[in-house]
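PROTOCOL LOG
Step 1. Enter all chains and additional molecules of the complex.
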Amino acid sequence: MTILVIAEHTNDHLSDATAKTVSAATKIGGDIHVLVAGSGASAAAEQAAKISGVAKVLHAEDDHYAKQLAEPMAALILSLADDYDVLMAPAGTDGKNYMPRVAAKLDVMQVSDIIAVESADTFQRPIYAGNAIATVQSSDAKKVITVRGTAFDAPAMDGSASVETIGAAEFPSISEFVKEELTKSDRPELQGAKIVISGGRALASGENFEKYIYPVADKLGAAVGASRAAVDAGYVPNDMQVGQTGKVVAPELYIAVGISGAIQHLAGMKDSKVIVAINKDEEAPIFQVADYGLVADLFEAMPELEKAL
Amino acid sequence: MKVLVPVKRVIDYNVKVRVKPDQSDVDLANVKMSMNPFDEIAVEEAVRLKEAGTAEEVIAVTIGPEKAQDQLRQALAMGADRAILIETTETVEPLSVAKLLAKVCEEESPQLVVMGKQAIDDDCNQTGQMLAALMGWPQGTFASAVTKEGDKLHVTREIDGGLQTVALNLPAVVTTDLRLNEPRYASLPNIMKAKKKPLDKKSPSDYGVEITARLKTLKVTEPPKREAGIKVGSVADLVEKLKNEAGVL
Ligand SMILES: Cc1cc2nc3c(=O)[nH]c(=O)nc-3n(C[C@H](O)[C@H](O)[C@H](O)COP(=O)(O)OP(=O)(O)OC[C@H]3O[C@@H](n4cnc5c(N)ncnc54)[C@H](O)[C@@H]3O)c2cc1C
Ligand SMILES: Cc1cc2nc3c(=O)[nH]c(=O)nc-3n(C[C@H](O)[C@H](O)[C@H](O)COP(=O)(O)OP(=O)(O)OC[C@H]3O[C@@H](n4cnc5c(N)ncnc54)[C@H](O)[C@@H]3O)c2cc1C
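Step 2. Run joint prediction.
Step 3. Record the structure below.
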């Protein structure tokens, strides 16, 4: 069995989810290679070589790969696919974008967002916003899989795989990068953070996130998330949304502030180790999953919490 | 240009599903079914393109049981011009859905396909990308803004780090994210009018597509249950518990 893990990275930095995808690959078993395709991505390739369990890193350099656009990425992965039995990627917005494209071309039904490996062809994946877990068996000879990073442990970073430079594949010139607006933040990344504090509609403005959420987050070294309602209202950017259709997190501690606890939100955080809810409505559904519930007005409780820490 | 909008009949997003005792599947008997919320956004976007004069015709298509006509009628009531039902009672995986949609694309030659980024039942998030691959078209997934700039389509995408804008050649596939627009409610007169709009019925065999499943569901189980914990009386109490009981501070 030979497995290719497609790295998720920002050229200078490899995502934690990539390492965790390697963990999932280890559970399937076999020779594990990691593909790092980017522009100026040597740093990411070197980080990939350190992941324990990786036998070889393939490094493809070209401007076309700088922004991970689906069309060139899929073409590159397809050019390598013959040599592999399994193709895997983290289920982030990059992997979700190019992997189904690869799968369709290979005439393979992708297994999305797996949370457990039962055997080389059998996997668990959440369906219906995590309200049910399906165990599925794939009959495809080649497997295309995306992996939910939070469900797998981070491997040790003591490996020393070789890094092999490979050429670029042909470029389908049907799409091009125009621009990006990346959210800049000095706080930890949502998906890797040990503590996440999220605000909901009750915050009522972006300024209130600044005033009531960020100071507590900074004291705790926490990442900040939000409910869809807070994102839709424009209080915070889209990449902070936690939930079924946003990011899935599973930190040691999740603090939900002024969030009601809709099933779509719970889908993104209910695997957190400890959940705290601060909500002024004692009937709010979030309390049904919270280990510690505080019935209080957040505008009073949050400044108090900041002081108490 | 012609716009194709695939819509899927799914369990209503307000319903909390239960797993059947025999673990064969979730229990969908007598639960409320609706149009996948992301597909409502897709229909809305297509209808807006028509209202802006960018699109001439909007065609809604679904693959599903006879009852999926309800969702097509809803699309028609929102402003789609005609609809196609590819009727099957079987479970159709995204790959087969994409193959059927590719056949519809060959027949109808749309310049644009707008569809949901994920269906809220299976949460697969694949169909649009697979369709784009089969057609050799570019894709603009997780779209929060779509504009026509000359002969290209500019799509702003919601990505893990923020927003990314790409320029796509046409024809193209766009998949919708939540913030692309707010779908309209169909008015009563439009619901009445929709009943008279054309709705074609087909079957997968009309398109020569085999829909055998590649994934076998061995079982469907409940996720581990989280028990509700305790209520704390004050902020001080909370901090004390997090430090000494939970050990997370
Ligand atoms: C297709 C689809 C996908 C979705 N995906 C997601 C997703 O990924 N993530 C997500 O989060 N949602 C998602 N949603 C939306 C979800 O259904 C809810 O609408 C949303 O989570 C509600 O956000 P909220 O809890 O902030 O707001 P509300 O439900 O309005 O809750 C606000 C809460 O704040 C409390 N409150 C008010 N004032 C105060 C105060 N002063 N102090 C303390 N508490 C206060 C209230 O008691 C209430 O419980 C999705 C919905 C759909 C249809
Ligand atoms: C255990 C289990 C039980 C299931 N039971 C049912 C069931 O009872 N009824 C049922 O309908 N499905 C059922 N399915 C789903 C079915 O097998 C396919 O997986 C599904 O139709 C493909 O959509 P998706 O959610 O996986 O794709 P996604 O890639 O998440 O869907 C994205 C978009 O593709 C389009 N799309 C997807 N499917 C269709 C379609 N059929 N017609 C038109 N456009 C579409 C929509 O625009 C949608 O927003 C079940 C799946 C499993 C695993």
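Step 4. Note key features.
Residues A 127, 134; B 6-9, 25, 28, 36, 38-39, 62-64, 91-94, 97, 115-116, 118-119, 121-122, 124-128, 217, 220 surround flavin-adenine dinucleotide (ligand 2) (CB under 6 Å).
Chain B touches chain A through 79 residues (CB under 8 Å).
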